[in-house]
UniProtKB/TrEMBL annotation, chain A:
GO terms for biological process: tetrahydrofolate metabolic process. Residues 177-456 form the FAD/NAD(P)-binding domain. Keywords: Oxidoreductase. Residues 522-602 form the SoxA A3 domain. It comes from the Bacteria. Residues 619-890 form the GCVT N-terminal domain. This is Sarcosine oxidase subunit alpha. GO terms for molecular function: sarcosine oxidase activity. Residues 910-995 form the Aminomethyltransferase C-terminal domain. Belongs to the GcvT family. InterPro entries: 2Fe-2S-bd_N, BFD-like_2Fe2S-bd_dom_sf, FAD/NAD-bd_sf, FAD/NAD-binding_dom, GcvT/YgfZ/DmdA, GcvT/YgfZ_C, GcvT_C, GCVT_N. It holds the Pfam family Fer2_4.
From TrEMBL, chain B:
Gene3D superfamilies: Folate-binding superfamily. It comes from Ahrensia marina. This is Sarcosine oxidase subunit delta. InterPro entries: SoxD, SoxD_sf. Pfam families: SoxD (PF04267). GO terms for biological process: tetrahydrofolate metabolic process.
Amino acid sequence: MNAPVSIQPNRIPGKGRLSAADPLRFTFDGKTLPALKGDTVASALIANDIHLVGRSFKYHRPRGIVSAGSEEPNALLGIQRDVARHTPNIRATVQEVYDGLEATSQNRWPSLKYDIGEINDIASPLLSAGFYYKTFMWPRKAWDKVYEPFIRKAAGLGKAPVHKDPDHYSSQHEHCDVLILGGGIAGLSAALAAAKNGARVIICDEQATFGGALHFDSDVTVDGMDGFSWAQKVTAELAAMDNARVLLRTTAFGYYAQNYVALIERVTEHLSAPRADLPRERLWEVRAKKVIIATGSIERHMVFANNDRPGILLASAARTYLNHYGVGVGKNVGVYTANDSAYAAAFDLKEAGINIPAIVDVRDNPNEELLAKASALGIRVLTGHGVMAAGGKLRVSSMSVAPVNGGANEVIAVDSIIMSGGWTPSVHMFSQSRGKVTYDADKSRFVPGVYAQDCVSIGACNGTDNLSATIDEAIAAGEDAARAVRHNAKQSATAINATGGEAWEGTLIGAAPGAEAGKVVKAFVDFQNDVTAKDIRLAVQEGFHSIEHVKRFTTNGMATDQGKLSNMHGLAIAAEALGKDLPEVGLTTFRAPYTPVTFGALVSHSKGTLFEPTRKTPMHDSEVAIGAVFEDVGSWKRAWYYPKTGEDMHAAVNRECKTARTNVGMFDASTLGKIEVVGPDAAEFLNLIYTNPFLKLGVGKLRYGIMCREDGFIYDDGVVARIAEDRFHVTTTTGGAPRVLNMMEDYLQTEFPHMKVWLTSTSEQWAVIAVQGPKSRDIVSPFVEGIDLSTEALPHMSMAEGTICGVPTRLMRMSFTGEMGFEINVPADYGRAVWDTLYQAVEEAGGCAYGTEAMHVLRAEKGYIIVGQDTDGTVTPYDAGLGWAVGKKKTDFVGIRGLKRPDLVAEGRRQLVGLKSVDGRSVLEEGAQIVDDPNQPMPMKMIGWVSSSYWSGNAQKPIAMALIEDGFNLMGKKLYVPMANEVIEVEVCKAVFVDEEGGRLHG
Amino acid sequence: MLLIHCPYCAEERPETEFAHAGEAHIERSTQMGELTDEGFANFFFYRDNTKGITYERWRHIHGCGRFFNAARDTVSDKFLVTYKAGEPKPDLSEIDNQTKAGAKS
């Protein structure tokens, strides 16, 4: 973009700190405009004499730029870098211009100047406070079809981007001695004092340059130089110190417990062509020993009729545009104020050659010196007057002025109005820290009162108005903080001498003259949510007396600017309407974030494949190689089934199930939870944890164990192997391992601390290969050394240690299929090699690998339960038909008392039984409800539900397990499963569908 | 995020290292099987759910793995003290005074 920069009508040569030697170009609603490096979109628009930048949310009123900072309620634009990088609702006052930036106005159609939605402004009497609550009530049917679509369409400003966010974000934890929030004169002074005394300091500020109010306050001189230059010098000094970190464009947005503060740094948002490796934003999570809050104060607007017309803005903003950006907000600027600061702005504008037709001051007796200076500059001052209304529509054109006490109106032509209703200390961070504010009645403001955390407020946010007092307070805070954390550091005094920056007097909160109760005018309190003074009075009139209710009913302060300008006005108007004092009504709660934060930054790296860890078994890649389809089980990837060419899931599962029963199948069981329980009291301990007796389990033997909670309900199950007198290999369900270990640790540490037992999670140390089926022994035996695999030596439910394929193994003769089988535990690193070797042998024998689906079918054919599928936290071992696993002679175990509760021993409990479909074809839906009479009137009494259901290729029929009231006594009874389109008749049976006698287990 | 002092590690660590484990000082009977219905209900179901100072168990699950006890104010969400499992409830009056003295006004 090397074309010559065209004229910027409001850019004033010789003013501001930007250089004409650094021209940039950007577009607004498609029109190319010139700017200078360092401009915000707002300053560049005003330089081009553009104030109209958007339409308001509810009434679609034309809106302009109000502020020069993050408090901006109106100037929200869509900012586009490229097609995938469109961000809506960016404050023009915060976004820096880079070459090629594209900005678009929002909430208007067909164009900013001619907007159809403006009809809402004319219809505004119908859209008063609580409009939504009152209108969208009945008829109820209209909700889906009419109201909700309408509300959704009307809701929100701007358009969300349609493409996936191509940027990356970063996050970082940081610890420091002193964290300073705000880089104005207070924050910088405190940072300097703390850093010079050895403290590790972080100072952040949301703006592109440090200085805060020094951006606009040209009257301040510090250490012999102008304030802003001093701020840059100190920033450089701090940046050069090893113990200080300086964060520009960084907003502290959340203050959490124990000085945990979240900052958001905008890293590339101001760059034309950011390096690809830079994150767009960086989230800082800072833990600070001390926090110094130096967040300054925010100027308030005046609440008068049509105060939202484009061209009307805060006095300090006008001063910022002039003194920092070299931009005049207009050529003929009216001033409306209740505070001295507007005078300083007016004087600066006047001295820059801008006409000031009048200063309208609601006060009768403003400061004499100011009046004298105004007179000397030839500015007319109307004291005791108010602006009754602003004229103009797309841009303010006049102000109608009248004495506060009544009298004739005078219309004064203007092209801009600057205003000040006084200053609101920014207590957001203090308040988020749970500190309690206190009301300063003299100056009608809330200031920090009782602190809840180790932090201190300094300067304007603390209600300290005077410059030298601010500096004293800041240096003291910095030195105190350093001393508190660095006891041995050498003391180094900081001296800063500042002049100028007189304290500004005067305040007005609530409606200005002409917008009092009874006046039917649109005097806006909250620009972003279109809340007028009238709306707040209406809310009170309609019975909302709590400020929190008034806020929600009117939506005052609920927009993305969080009421930075509006809260105090809203509160004052509500208090007046309620006839109460301000502190009695109270402030609404300040909540994080201080300004909007992108989800990208909060999510940071935790997205896509990094969202959560993926757990893969050691054999995973081999399973991929033989075509496994995987399912997610918790964070595990488990082989679900292994389709051959042309097979669908059903065909593959049928084949796998059949092969395992008739030949041999192998299964990756590595995800089972495993806990090594070791110590002289290990058996005693397990005897307490499990319902089963464990004291007499022989070395080399296995036992299926059930674990309950104290309430007597099944918590987990698994096979326990006794490796040695004092050593057990415990298995848990795949998902249950962490909670089982936690429960064991809990009992061991807190209830049975006298026991000498050590618990170690070994889930990931062992790879587990199940080889199941009539040929399983033939497959395994050639590779095993040191173990006799005969049934005599190694019967069902026993184990031995030896080697397989030359690596150590804990080889267990056990089965979750009902076939003779082995579960081969090998150290995880050898898992894949052993799997590959065995797989080759299995394949040569005509066997196959089977996945979790076949495993589920095979175990259901035998009625083996899966905890969490066939139990739901209300099932006892007796209900599950596993009463045999409860040690009747034991005097204690977890759940012993719970199992005796009256409801748990009562008749009619739901019990786990099998179900056959009478038609021999219908596979029931898991979760389906069961009734005994399908013709009973609705609502029917549901007597149970289907917990497991499959097609069994081996049984050639559907099989199911269900929890049914009194199920054990219903064998052979016909029950019914009502579905959407049919009623399926079922017959209750034992939950065993294959090899009822269990002979196959023993080979 | 809170910082929690682990009495076993003897240092403050971030909350994400810990897991809450319910109310503290509820003792499991050594005659568990013989408990009355009321006794079991009190042991298993009833909890104080205090507004104010509560005694509760925590586990330094992503640290040393130990269970310990804490006195925490459920209104301010502040930990007053943490102590090892098995130790009696601490006398909070002294801690309370220290906290009050430490607070700024």
